[in-house]
Amino acid sequence: MSEHAATEHEQLLEEAKLAADQTYSPYSQFPVGAALLTENGRVIRGVNVENISYGLTNCAERSALFSAISQGFAPRSFKAIAVYAPKVPLISPCGACRQVLLELMAPDAVIICQGSDALATKVWTLKELLPGAFDSF
Ligand code: THU
Asked: Is 61 a catalytic residue?
């Protein structure tokens, strides 16, 4: 990985950490913050938002993506997303989010994941997260 990419990933993780302070997660007590990087260098944050009807919960990754689309950013124009969850050593996106990430992120996007153990930080591609995916594009 280039030095530039590593710095970009660090900065995006910092944004995801700031987002993790804003979650609405009273049921799971499991805060997750996400930060999405657009092709023009803008950052859009997302958090997990829970509900007393548990199944209505929205993960941080989907919150960030849906917020970006709502603000007019083009689908598939997002080059990276950082995800931060302090309650586990390493966070890994759920299956539902993987399918949504595949459809809305740029095809060569990276998913940067970090938990409480910074040394365990992972950078995944969409193909690695969802091999053999259902993808109509
Ligand atoms: N969650 C996320 O926001 N992102 C993930 O990658 C995994 C799980 C949320 C959903 C729920 O609010 C809480 O974490 C516990 O599952």
From this structure: yes
